[in-house]
Structures are given as C-alpha cells and as structure tokens.
Amino acid sequence: MTTLLDIQDLHARVQDKDILKGLNLTVNAGTVHAIMGPNGAGKSTLSKVLAGAADYEVTGGRVLLAGKDLLALNPEARAAAGVFMGFQYPVEIPGVSNMMFLKAAVNAQRKQRGEPELEAADFLAWVRHRVKQMKMDPAMLSRGVNEGFSGGEKKRNEILQMLVLEPKLMVLDETDSGLDIDALRIVAEGINAMRSPERATVLVTHYQRLLDYVQPDHVHVLAGGRIIKSGGPELARELEEKGYGWLQAA
Amino acid sequence: MRAPTSYQAAFAQFAQGLPAAERALREQAFASFAAAGFPDDSAERWHYTDLNKLAPQNVQLPATLGAPALDELLLPGCESRVWLNGRAQQAAAGGEMPSGAGDALVQLNRAFALPGLQLQLAAGEQRAQPLHALLLTQAQAPGEMHHLAHRIALARGSRATVLLHSAGLPGAASFSSHQLDLDLAEQAQLTLICLQQEGEQAAQLLQTRARIGRDAQLRLINLDFGGQLIRKDWQLQLAEAGAQLEVHGLFAAQQRVHLDNQYEVEHAAPHTSSRQLLRGLGSGRSKSILNDRVLVRPGAFKTDSEQRLANLILERGAEINAKPELEIYADDVKCAHGNSCGQLDERAVFYLRSRGVPEAQARALLTYSFADAVLAQLPIAALRLRLAQTLTRQLGAELDFEDLT
C-alpha cells in the first residue's frame, strides 16, 4: 500500500504553548484512521497544523503528503494538493452564496493544478447531485455560506464541500459533534461515499458514536501531544467503556 | 475665509446675460457665499474636512462638450436622463430657483446652479420604472466646476425609485456641488439610490434636505466608490407622525480619498421610525468620516430608531472616523445604536484558503460579503451586479457573480 500521509516526530505550539510533542502517524491510501483522545490532547491542533492555520507554529518534525513536504505549502496550495479539513466550527459568510463559494474553490484548485475551469452547467449538475446525496435543500446553494445554518446543517455543508472538492486526504475535526442521529447517519454516508483505494480519511473524534457508522481501519489514542496507543476498531469500543484514564496512567 | 477671485471671475462670466430678476437673486447668493467663504474646521461638523483646499483653485465654468459614450453607464430597465458637466443633455424641466436662508455652500450652489433632476409626482402616481439621473463630469481643464439643484417632490400616495448617479470620466480636476431637496407628502414612498463614482481628481459637495410626511417612507441607499474630496450632508426630517426612514450606506474609500458623510436624522413627530445600517471600507491612505446623529425632538414620543455602524480597515494607513450621536428630548422612545471598526476575521480567511481560494481572493470575497449587507438592498438587480463587480475589482480580485441574482 502507498503511504499518503506520513507524520514524523511532529512538534507544534500555539501561543507559546507546546501542544504536539513528537507525534508520529502513517496513513496509507485506502484507509480510515480515527484519532481519539481526551480534551486538550492536541486533536484539533493536529487538524489545523495539517491544514496550515497561521496561528499554529510547527517547531519540529516533518509531514509528507504523497512523499512531498506538506508544511512548505500555504493553505490554498495544500487544498489544491488534495488536503481537506472539515471544520469543527465552520465560518458563516453572509452574502457569498454556497454556489459562488464552491465554484470559487473548485476553480481556484483547478487553476493551481493547471487544469481548465469547469463548464458552468456541468458544474451545477455536479453540485446538485451531491446536495441531494447530503439530503440538503437545493435552495441552500443560493443562500450565504453557512448563513443562519444550524450546527448540524453546517457540518453537512462541510461534507458537501468535501464531496464537491474530491480531496485525497480528508481530515475531519469533530465533524460528529452537534449532530442528531439522522444527521450523523447522513454525514457518515457522505464520508463512506468518499472511501476509495486512492483516498484516506483521518477522523478526529471524541466519541465512539461516529465510528458505528464509519468503520475505521485503525484507531489511535492521542494524549499529551503524542499517539500513545494504536489498535483496530475494537480499541474505540474499549475506550468508550473505560475512558482514557487507564492509558494515561500507564 | 473669503472666496478667492477666481470664483468672482467665474460668477461675473456666468451672470452675464442672465435675466435681471434671476441675476439679482444669484448676485445675492454669491455675495452671501463670498462674505462667509468656505467653512473652516472651527465648526464641529467640519472638524475633519477642510474645504479651503477648494478655495485657491483656479475655478472656471466648463466648456461645452459632445456627448460621450454612455453604454457602460446606463442600466437596462431604467429611464435615463443625463447631465454632462452640469448641463442637461435633454430638454430640461426648469425648476423654480430656490432662495432664502442657507449656509455658504447653499449660497454658492444658488449663485451658479442649473436645474438638475426635477421630479414631481402627482397624488397617487406610481412610477414603475426606476429613473436613472446620470450626472457626468469630464473636465477639460483643471478647476472646471459645475453646480446643480435637484428636487424630488412626491405628492400624497405617489411612489418612485430614483438613482442619482454621479460619475467621472477621465479628465482634469473638477469641482461640483449639488443641492438635493426631497419632499414626501402623506403616504408617499421614495427609494433613492445616491451613487457616487466620481473621478480620482474630483471634489463633490452634496447637501440633502428631506422632509418625510405622515406615513410616508424614504428608503435611502447611499453609496460612495470614488472621488478625491467628497462631502455629503444629509438632513433627514421625519416631520409627521408615522414617517419612516431607512438608510443603507456603504463607502469604499481607497488611495488618498477624503470622504465625509454627515447624517442628521431628526425625529420631529411621534410614532416615527428610522433604521440605519452604515458600512465602510477603508484602504490605501484614505480618510473617511461617518457622523451619524439622531435627534429626537420634544414631543416625538414612540420614536423608534436604530443606528448600526460597522467599518473595516483593510490596510494599515487607512483612517475611518465613525461616530453615532444620539440626542433625546422626548420620553417613551426606543433608540438603539452600535458602532464597530475592525479587520477581516482571520478565521474566515483561513476557512476560504483551506478550500483552495488564494489569500487575496479570500480577502476580496469576505470584504464583498461585508459590503453585500448594503448592496443586497438595491432594488435594481443589474446595478447590484455591476457594483459587486466594481467593488471586487477595486479589491484586486475577479469573482464570478453569475449566481448572485
């Protein structure tokens, strides 16, 4: 199997506070990894560092995406290279319609990759199909990005963007938080629809719940800025039963 | 400060050949202006704007010009009337010459003003098509000036949408002044879009007085995108019970523009309401002033007013002075106000970049998003689209707005 994401001894800080302290993780194409862990372990920091947020400073280590130095790229170039981060708290952009936003994003990525812009009509059909898949109202396309959306709608919109952008590496930061059971199922179906031998997913999550719908191949426990335990899907159930205390104490 | 001799010379030239009665009125106005001169910063409402830089200019009356190409400026679905350098390009409806009291700028305008937009609607008359008054400036020589007097009077129950649009074509430095009188009788409804797209070397003074009658409604959308020295005064009076006012304002000041908007909303009668949403963008080394005063007169009980000011400083070096003011002399009123000045939300910039949108374009999109709260109020779709494009071009990005409308 080819390695899609290779994180080596990653150290990162935010506002002079060290959060990641030597994190190692290898994600092969075609796999789904779940990263679980207690509050403050560094889960969100890991997602943001991968996406390139400016307020997170990498102080050591390497991150390779398909063998290339990911950390050398700015956020938009990472997106064009195939990284997608699903936000825990998606931002509202009133006045910029979802359709305008999706088109700007797709065409900006294509331009960076040296591909031609999409035809407007084809693109609309393409997007509509995916809106349906996420069981969203097509009228949302002409509304402002996340404008007045509920927490659940925002998360669905994240997955919609993911379906439209077709990234290689999906990093979903607490995408399951704030979802009711129906929305959780729809979101999970969206994630599953993107599973393919060329792609990989990293699910950052607090709870076992999402993993009932999206079967991970690997489960990791992140605590104190490092992966302290890795295992198969059974590890998630064990964590759900016992919590994290027994691992941190060990 | 006294008016300089170049104004005297221009006036002497202008007054030649006027009928005696009109000439007397104009001479009176000019004498008042000359005695008072341009206002200086000793008065508070002139604290930021010094018009004395207009005084030493060697002003002159504009040369007559052939009509320029207008296709890019006109709007589909609108009836248009055009003024070029202050001269009507169609048979002009002669307005009555205003007279009486007024400050030096009023008097300066009265001394020189030709009739601008004169719109009078009869009781119950409804104008289906928006009226586009295009006020073009194309100065042939530095210091060319023109002055226009506009009046919109809506009789009982009549309705109109008017776009008062000043635009500069490439040319020399110019100076124009505009007096705008608005009179809304009972139940009249006026939507007035005041769009300023003057050239980079243009000075413009606009003074507006509005009287809003019983149960009448004025919706004002005031947009500033150009100019060099712009000063606009808005005296908006809710004169009778049930009068309503809505103001949406947006300015985009760039380079070295000096832009001063002074709003004064006067609640002079009970059960009147005013809603103001004023937004501004400052970039380059521009200086913008936004003063928004709401005055509730004694007896204007049940006044309901709201002032929402929000501004974005897009570049270090730009300056925005925004201030809501509130004076209340009546009981049982509801007056809300808020004012903010800040930068783009960096979380939102990152959100867009994480989707592949380059940083400059992300900033342009978010700035547009901020401005759209005002642009979305435009009742003319083609104008909203055009201004969205103008704004994003000013912001240095190309965005696809085909899904906007």
From TrEMBL, chain A:
Q: Which PROSITE patterns does its entry note?
A: ABC_TRANSPORTER_1, ABC_TRANSPORTER_2
Q: What is this protein called?
A: Fe-S cluster assembly ATP-binding protein
Listed PANTHER family:
ABC TRANSPORTER I FAMILY MEMBER 6, CHLOROPLASTIC
Matches recorded under InterPro entries: AAA+_ATPase (IPR003593), ABC_transporter-like_ATP-bd (IPR003439), ABC_transporter-like_CS (IPR017871), FeS-cluster_ATPase_SufC (IPR010230), P-loop_NTPase (IPR027417)
List each copy of the ABC transporter domain by range. Answer: 5-249
Enumerate the SUPFAM superfamilies for this protein.
Answer: P-loop containing nucleoside triphosphate hydrolases (SSF52540)
Q: Which family does it belong to?
A: Belongs to the ABC transporter superfamily. Ycf16 family.
Enumerate the CDD domains for this protein: ABC_FeS_Assembly
Which Gene3D superfamilies does the entry mention?
P-loop containing nucleotide triphosphate hydrolases
Q: Which UniProt keywords apply?
A: ATP-binding, Nucleotide-binding
Q: Does the keyword Nucleotidyltransferase apply?
A: no
Q: Which source organism?
A: Solimonas aquatica
UniProtKB/TrEMBL annotation, chain B:
A Pfam match: SUFBD_core
Recorded hits in InterPro entries, A to Z, give: Fe-S_cluster_assembly_SufBD, SUF_FeS_clus_asmbl_SufBD_core, SUF_FeS_clus_asmbl_SufBD_sf
Q: Which residues cross the membrane?
A: none
Ranges of residues in domain SUF system FeS cluster assembly SufBD core = 143-370
**Protein's GO biological process:** iron-sulfur cluster assembly
SUPFAM superfamilies in the record:
Stabilizer of iron transporter SufD
Q: What is this protein called?
A: Fe-S cluster assembly protein SufD
What organism is listed for this UniProt entry? Solimonas aquatica
